[in-house]
Amino acid sequence: MPEMLRAIFQALIRCVRSRRELVLENLALRQQLAALAARQPRPRLAVHDRLFWVILRRFWSNWRRVLVIVHPETVVRWHRAGFKLYWKWISRAHARAGRKPTPKALRELIFRMVVENNTWGAPRIHGELKMLGYEISERSVLRWMRKAPRNAEPARRWAAFLSNHREAIAAMDFFTVPTVTFGVLYGFFVIAHERRRILHFNVTRQPTSAWVVQQLREAFPYDSAPRYLIFDRGASFNDDVVDTIKSFGIQPKRTSFQSPWQNGIAERFVGNCRRDLLGHVLVVNKRHLKRLMKAYISYYHEDRTHLGLGKETPAGRKAEENPAPDCRVVSIPRLGGLHHRYRRAA
Question: For residue 206, what pLDDT band results from cuts at 50, 70 and 90?
Answer without folding.
Answer: very high
